[in-house]
Amino acid sequence: MDTTKSRALFQDARSVIPGGVNSPVRAFRSVGGDPLFIQEAHGATIHDADGNAYLDFVGSWGPMLLGHDHPEIREAVAAALVHGASFGAPTPGEVELAHRVVDLVPSVEMVRLVNSGTEATMSALRLARAHTGRNGVIKFRGGYHGHGDAFLVEAGSGAATLGVPNSPGVTPGAAQDTRIAEYNDLDSVATLLADGQVAAVFVEPIAGNMGCVPPEDGFLEGLRRLCDESGALLVFDEVMTGFRVAPGGAQERYDVMPDLTTMGKVLGGGLPMGAFGGPEEIMRGVAPVGPVYQAGTLSGNPLATAAGNAMLGHLQAHPEVYERLEALGQILDEGFGALLDRHGVPVQWCRVGAMAGLAFTREPVRDWATASGADTARFGRFFHGMLSEGIYLAPSAYEALFFSTAHTESDMERLVEAAGRVLPQVFTEVSA
């Protein structure tokens, strides 16, 4: 396929944008080659600058639960724009959206709107520290909670070892209160909680930045118990899982209630949007009611809230959406199950709701150690093979696959059939 215009755009972009992209994973560095520049998208299909069409399983990295260019969302944003793009003042739309979040997310009684998932997690951490009077925070190795300084760290060995920044520009001071536990390992969490200095445990209830790793039986329940015993707050990062794996997110799907929840992606219907929320008792700590400062000039933006209201309103009016998504997912489960059995290749398939992961490893993926042991070179070959089949996947071995109500049964079958042609080539090429 011809990608001349994408290559030219990438060359031009690198002269004015660091690395030619505005988010690092878009650069295709982990899979090789040059990124595609996308010009338009409708339903389950995206089109690049050269006019090539691809069946999309990225969905803007998760927000497009109803597919691209959904008419209800498009019309809502267009109607809002007639009245102005931003006011820097309270609007009816943000009140409406807040009510929808409270109605849908089981643990949330009050919510503050922000502009991104990163803002949401940074603000939730500040609130948790103020509420508990503690400084420590636990995150899980391989878990991603945005690019706030406190979350861009790895931990040294031992519970008392200070965190070490893993990005230049993150100071030791910013990292010193961050402790790293192992996903699906309650003992590692208990050890880090033992000194009573942890304000919050942050967790992706389904680890979407390891591909798609579900919690093992009892893990989320165990985190709830450990936090209750230690006085730390349990924070679910539902930026990815919120409204996607169930109307009320992973906390509804697994029936485990966190103290605070962070949200984004689906919440904004494709426009920049984030939020954090929880019980009124905790949320009343946020300014102007409480002392915890948090602000944003464009928070509650009328275009974003219009998109969010259209998205959540559709989900509320059509609960059958989730039955359809599960049915589509079953096609993938059965298809990939049969495919991997037939070829006998060392690949793991996992799906929860409308997100899934494919890991090139013999060992089932349960944490960062097993996820990072996957063969990224094989994934890169697989990615480009699927691209040549007209299938657009995330250009990273550690990112989830997303699908939407715009996908059809035949789209699911097409994905599996394409993988059936590409996988044998990948393993033949590597072994040759």
Structure description:
By secondary structure, the protein is of the alpha/beta class. 38% of the residues lie in helices and 16% in strands. It folds into 2 domains: 179 residues, Aspartate Aminotransferase, domain 1; 247 residues, Type I PLP-dependent aspartate aminotransferase-like (Major domain) (Aspartate Aminotransferase, domain 2, 3-Layer(aba) Sandwich), CATH 3.40.640.10. A 7-stranded mixed beta sheet has the order 4-12-11-10-9-5-8, sandwiched between helices. A 4-stranded mixed beta sheet has the order 1-2-3-15. Strands 13-14-16 form a 3-stranded antiparallel beta sheet, covered by helices on one side. Strand 13 and strand 14 form a beta hairpin. The protein is globular. The relative contact order is 0.16.
In short:
The chain contains 14 helices and 16 strands. The chain has 432 residues and is α/β, with parallel strands linked by helices. It has two domains: 4-69 and 319-431, Aspartate Aminotransferase, domain 1, CATH 3.90.1150.10; 71-317, 3-Layer(aba) Sandwich (Aspartate Aminotransferase, domain 2).
Pick out its properties.
single chain, 432 residues, alpha/beta, Aspartate Aminotransferase, domain 1, Aspartate Aminotransferase, domain 2, 7-stranded mixed β-sheet, 4-stranded mixed β-sheet
